[in-house]
Each structure stands twice: as structure tokens, then as C-alpha cells.
Amino acid sequence: MILFFVSLATFYVLFPAVWVKPERLLNGTLFSQAFESTWPIFVGLLVMLLFDVIALKGKISDFSLNFLANHKQKILKSLVAFFLFCVAFVFANVFTGMKWYDFEAIISSPKSAYSTGGYDGLFFANFFPLIFTITPLAFLSLLFAMFWNLFKKNIESRISSTVFSLTLFIFLYYLATTVNKVAAMNRYQIMIFPLAIILGGIGFGLIYENILRKKYPQMKNLMFFVIFVLSVGSVYFSRPFYISYDSPLLPDKYYTDLKDMGTGSYQAAQFINSLPDAEKLHVWTDKKGVCPFLKAKCYSGFTYPRLREANIDYAIVSAGRKARTQKMITPATIKKDLIRFDTLYDRNDSDVVYKLEINGRPRNFIKVIKLDQEFFDLYKNL
């Protein structure tokens, strides 16, 4: 209960909109959309807990806690083993060309992902960003922590408890998103990445204490220097698109930031602004976030008659909006004045006057394309 009220208080303090409209405290927590499918579970657990405390004097709670205490090592090892299995499965799926589940297709449409991958595909897809969005050093150290807790017999209680708690939280979070039929894309996992890095820190601490310090004590300073260089290097080579970082372990044809936050939009806008008479140009973009940076007249959306009258000169398209645009332009949406914006994403001809590959990933791009009359006539060929 203390944790519950502290959580509500934190939400109240850090979300100023609640100060103006107090009802948003409940709309953002207990009555949020995320709880629509799971609230009966939480209410049921709360009722059982109250019944146990009031009617049974805590007998069920005592039994449960004693069971956990007596079997904590078995539970920890089972949890860690399942985590390692999930990691191995995701690696196998990625390096066999997404043979079993297309993680990119699932994550690119997070709120309709269930129809693409089902519950099992949703659950495993959550591990895709987790594994390939942290640095290789952090990931390999995390694996060491997991294997250490799986095979080591006498583990320090502080370490085993921390590994158990963090791993369990990750699983519960993924289970919750799966039950709600939502894929946990990068920004949905912003709270999970630090936990994974903490697990990696535990793993590296174990490597240092049990291997490096005992066998190679003279290499302590060199080791920390190498870690520093690797850490700074991973940040340096992803500049200025830090939020779209992908691990070198991920094959170049894939990327994890499938629902980006406008990465590359500023650079594309600067290119348009550098063109002669930029103020007189008319530009269509699949992201409204580009518009504030443009000197040109900016358009978005799919109001086709208005767009045809505007005589659009250039289009700015990005990989993150490809799935959405293609969904908006289907046989069901065919109507007069339709403009085939969905065909722009795969173009690599001479009309692509600017292309930026985010962090060197060919399929994670933003393009500026010069439009001509032939493009506007494409709807006739649908």
C-alpha cells in the first residue's frame, strides 16, 4: 500500500496537468487504457490479500513467503534460464532472417501488433529492442550475470536478489504489454533499458571480482581505459542520432527504432532550406514535426484535392512512417484525386535528391524526393 500511494504521489507531483484537472490522476493510472484488460486481475489479487489479512490472519501470505524463501534458488535459476532461452530464440530468429516472427513488422505497428504476431510473437518481439539497443559490452556483461546466477551454487544474497527482482520486473512488464496486445517498441521500454544496463553492471562486477582482479591485477587501469573507450565510442559513432542507436550485433539490414521520434527531420528540413527560393517551395511530409523547421510551405495528411491544388514540389518521407502511409493508401481508400505517397518509400532513382541513413542502417532513412507530374498521375494505375 505504501508503494501504491507513493506512486500516485509521484505521478501527481511530476505531471502538472493533474494540478489543473485532478481527474487525470486516475485517468493516467488506475483508469488508464493499459488497465482495461487487466484490472480484474489486480482487483482480484487485492481482494484476496485483504481477505487473507482480515479473515485468515495472513496464513496464505506466510505460506507463500515461506515457499519462496525455501525455493528461492530454484525459482531464480528457472527465471534466469527462461530469460536466456528468450534471448537465444530472438538471436536465432534474427540471424535466420526473421524465420518465425517478423519482429520489425510487429513493432512497427505496436497497437495492432497482435494481428501480426499473436501473443507469442508479441512477447518475443519485446526482447528485440532490449537486446539490440544496449551496447555489446552491456549485453555481454548481462549474459555473464545470468549464466553466473544459473550455474553458480553459492551466490551472494545481495546479487541474487537484485538479479531476481530486475529480471522478474522485465518479464512482468513484457507480460503486461503482451496481455494488452501492445508491442513494446523502443520508447515504451525507456524504463527497461536502465534495468538491463544495471544487470550488465552486475555482470561486469562479477567478471572483475572473480576473474580479472584475481588473475590479471596488473591490468586494472588498462581494463577501465578500454571500457571507457568502448563506451565513448558507441556514443560517438551514433551521433547525432543517439536515440536511434543500434548495437553492432544487429545485422545491418535491420534496425530497432521502428517508430522513431522524428530522427533526421531537422537535417532534411535544412536541405530543403538550402535550395534556391526555398520560401516559395511547397513540401509534403509524412511527419508534421518537420514543418516548424521548414522555410517552405509545409503540408501533411491525405486531403488529396487540397494537395493537388498546392502543386507540391518535394516530399519528405521516413522509414518510421512507411507502414502508416501504406495502411492509409489501400484498395479500400481509393478515391478521386488519390496521390500515391506510398510509392515514395522504395524509390532510389534520380529524383531522390537527399537521403540520410540513420546510423548507417540502409532501411532506417529519411528521404527528400522531387515530385513531377508523372508521380501525380500514378493513382490512375491502381
How is the topology of this model organized?
Elements: H1 2-14, H2 17-20, H3 24-27, H4 39-54, H5 59-70, H6 72-95, H7 103-108, H8 114-125, H9 127-133, H10 136-151, H11 157-179, H12 192-215, H13 220-236, H14 265-273, E1 282-285, E2 297-299, H15 304-310, E3 314-318, H16 322-328, E4 352-357, E5 365-370, H17 373-376
Parallel strand pairs: 1-2, 1-3
Antiparallel strand pairs: 3-5, 4-5
Task: Describe this structure as you would to a colleague.
The protein has helices at residues 2-14, 17-20, 24-27, 39-54, 59-70, 72-95, 103-108, 114-125, 127-133, 136-151, 157-179, 192-215, 220-236, 265-273, 304-310, 322-328, 373-376; strands spanning 282-285, 297-299, 314-318, 352-357, 365-370. With 382 residues, it is an alpha/beta fold. It folds into four domains: 1-31; 34-70, no CATH class; 82-258, no CATH class; 265-381, no CATH class. Helix 6 crosses helix 10 (136-151), helix 6 (72-95) crosses helix 11 and helix 8 packs antiparallel against helix 11. It is globular, with a radius of gyration of 25 Å.
Describe this protein with a few key phrases.
5-stranded mixed sheet, 17 helices, 382 residues, alpha/beta
Tell me how many strands there are.
5
Give the count of helical stretches: 17
Mean pLDDT: 82
Overall number of structural domains: 4
